[in-house]
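Sat 14:20. Reprocessing the chain from the morning session after the first attempt stalled halfway. Input below, unchanged.
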Amino acid sequence: MLRPAFCFSLAAIAALSVSAQDLDTTYVSDEFTSGSRGNALGTGPTFNNSLTDGTEFLAITNTDGVTGTINYINIFAGATGGEVESPVYNVTVAQDNQDRTLPGAIEAIVASGGADPGAVLVGDDGGTNGLLFGENDDANYFVEAAVYCYNRTTPGPPGYETHSVMFRGARDGEGLLSGGGGSYTMDRVAGSFAITWDAQLGTVFARRWNGSTTTADITNRVATTFTDFGSTTLAEGWHTFRIEGYGSVITFTVDGSELASVIDSTFPNGRAGLIYREASVVSADETQAYFDNMRAGPATPPTVTSVEQFELYR
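Finished this time. C-alpha cells:
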C-alpha cells in the first residue's frame, strides 16, 4: 500500500536559498539587445596566447522587468575582450566580425516586447565556442533559447556545423580539456544533454553527448559519440529549443512540440549553455550561430503519485 507521504508535490524545493546563478531556484532571461557576453578577463589556462574561459557578470533585466545578475562563461578564448567572442548584433543588417565574414542579414525574431533585431553570435574559436551560465550543481531546471537554424544541405559545404542548447553540462573538475589548453566543453570530455541542430544534415536531434570522445569522432558523427532520443527536420529560420529536467526525467521540445522525453540519470547536474561547433568547413563558409530570447529557471515540480515516480524525480 502506498504511504500518503509519497503523494505530494515537490514544490517545497522552491524554499531553498536563492542565488542569482542557481537555476534550480532563480529565473533568468536575456533578450540580447546590446553589448556582448562573456568577454571579460579569462580565468582558465593559456591557449593560443589568450586565457580561456572568459567570464562576465552582467546585470540583465528579464522579461518581467526584474534586473538580476547572470554570470556568463565564454569557453575557449573568452579573454580577448573584443567583440570577436560573443557580440550582440542587429541580425537584420549584414555583419562582419574579427573572426569571420558572416553569411548576411536574416530576419529578426519576435520577442515578448515586439520585434527585436538583436541576437548574440556564438562563433568559431578553434572549432567550438559557447556561452555557459548557471551553477555546477544545478539539476532541476529548464533552459530554452531561439536558435537560427541555417540549412546547409543543398548545396552546402562539406564538413560539420552544429548549433546546440545544452543542459547539465560543463561540470567542474570533469569537463576540462587537457594538453594544449583547457576549457569546458559540451561533448568532448564530460558530456551533456542537448538539442543539437546539424546544419549539414538539416536535422535537429534530442541528444545525449556521451563524453570521453575525440573531436574526430564528434565531427565524423561516429555513433558511439552520442545517443539520440528523437529527431526531425526543420526549415531554415528561427526555432525555439527547450530542455527541462527534474530528477531522471528529461524532456526535449522544439517550437513547443515534444521531440523526446526520456528517463536518463547519466548526468544529474551541470550548467546550461549555448554552443557552436564546426569542423572541416572553410572559414568563409561558416555560418556561426545566432541565439536569442534565452530563458532558464526552476523546472515545474511534478506531482508524485507512486513510489516509482518518487524514485525518478528525487
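The longest helix spans residues 307-313.
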